[in-house]
């Protein structure tokens, strides 16, 4: 071993340690600050107490906002997954002129519909439809923004399903709805799970659309309520925020663990490896 090799290895391990610390420090703060009698922005051994948990549970909107987030995200995820499955199957099995160009156009629109430039027309449209302050209407807007990318992703899974499977089902008298529900979708379940998790996580962290469309604080999700958690002096309420942040992170982690245990995120196309 040459001195240069030793120096490079030391530098490599130092870099890895710095990167790990960069990600580990916020996680350690999130684990300790909710139970610290004197929470702050620094990282230290907590003075254990349950007072912060009690203050968060007693907050008039904290738990309600988490329920709102679950309702909003589950609705958006289900709508996105259902319509993406139908559209992906149609685009995969139907020969139409300019199909590939249409897919790329849909993908391009997915980055525009939910962008800042589209907020004014979206708000005007929702106002005219009477869907401002509607959690269902907000979920539909969020789903509409994610749908083009979801179709683009799920189509690759549907393309990997052999057409011979569908032809065999039709020989035995299966209708198109049965072919989709009993032949195609069971094979592309990893892809459906991917879209479900992806859409839920994107909706869970969405701030701008719920902030604009939900004016009633009792209907706002946790991502919007987070910005209002302040004390009487207008500073961040460090009694409530750490516990609320911990609760806010649990659903996404649980969803990841459940899907990872079932599929392991080790699949290619429509066939699990």
Care to describe what's here?
The chain has 273 residues and is mostly helical. It has two domains: 3-49, no CATH class; 60-272, MetI-like fold. The chain has twelve helices and two strands. The protein has helices at residues 3-32, 51-58, 62-93, 99-113, 119-128, 135-159, 163-171, 176-187, 189-204, 208-213, 222-225, 241-263; strands at residues 267-268, 271-272. A two-stranded antiparallel ribbon has the order 1-2. Strand 1 and strand 2 (271-272) form a beta hairpin. The longest helix is centred in the N-terminal third of the chain and has 32 residues, at 62-93. It is globular. The two termini are 40 Å apart. Mean pLDDT is 84; it is low at 267-273.
Please tag this protein with its features.
disordered C terminus, mainly alpha, MetI-like fold, globular, two-stranded antiparallel ribbon, 273 residues, single chain, 1% strand
Structural class, from secondary structure content?
mainly alpha
Mean pLDDT: 84
Broad CATH class of the largest domain: Mainly Alpha
Q: Could you give the order of strands across the largest sheet? A: 1-2
What's the β-strand tally? 2
Write the layout of secondary structure elements.
Elements: H1 3-32, H2 51-58, H3 62-93, H4 99-113, H5 119-128, H6 135-159, H7 163-171, H8 176-187, H9 189-204, H10 208-213, H11 222-225, H12 241-263, E1 267-268, E2 271-272
Antiparallel strand pairs: 1-2
Helix pairs in contact: 3-6, 3-9, 4-6, 6-9, 7-8, 9-12
